[in-house]
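Render this sequence as a predicted structure.
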Amino acid sequence: MNIDNHFSNAQRAEVLTQALPHIQRYNGKIVVVKYGGNAMINEQLKQQVMEDLVLLNLVGVKVVLVHGGGPEINDLMQRLGKKPEFVDGLRVTDKETVDIVQMVLAGKVNKSLVNLLEMKGGTAMGLSGMDAHLIEAKMKDERLGYVGSITKVNIDPVVDLLEKGYIPVISTIGCDSKGNAYNINGDTAAAFIAGALGAERLIMMTDIAGILRDKDDPTTLIPSITIEEAEELFEQGVISGGMIPKVDCCIEALHRGVKNVIIMDGRVPHSILMELLTDEGAGTMVMGERA
């Protein structure tokens, strides 16, 4: 059944007019989207995310896509007979593994996303953090090998692409002055890039609805928190496990000049449009302070 048949032309027009104030608000503004996880694995969801980004670009939003690709990296490692290892949620990355990461992220995943955006009518350009030394890094911890800690972001190539109307698609590989490549946490890279761009909004797509007061109950979604309230939720144990580094990255982005950050469920169809172009929004908004 085609859901379009349930809407009259008048209803479609009403939806568009309700979106108008939101389109006006974000016109000419920069929105960075961190994309990965299940939304990237599910082909139908991937198509919808690309449609959302192209639509936003066409109505004047300057969209930047920062992506990961952990499942694809794991898949290739296993096919090559190499077992993925993690310490505190970070991938142990020896020399062979960083080559695999570079092949998967800067190659297969990056170019497939660029191609999808083009097929949806967008104009996209793929970059890795190594291009023009976009992401400069140093070794984070010797135990982790070639896992990078960001030391500098050279944002000019991204700004140039945005000014020419492209959607920059960035894979999170960093480098140092000696030519070493580093595996960079995608959320951290998105926070630094969004900060360097002075983005209006950073959208973190995850596998849950947002920050939940009870992690097992989606109805306990917290719609918005300030940095101060986030610190209290850390202490109470409400923000725990894998959500801790994600919220830390949100706070990092705010400190670096991003207006606000959204943690949302990337498994919900068209969640990006729901967040940006409707009154209700989606997920949890993390902000510096309440107005």
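Summary. Residues 22-287 form a domain with the Carbamate kinase fold (CATH 3.40.1160.10). The mean pLDDT is 89.
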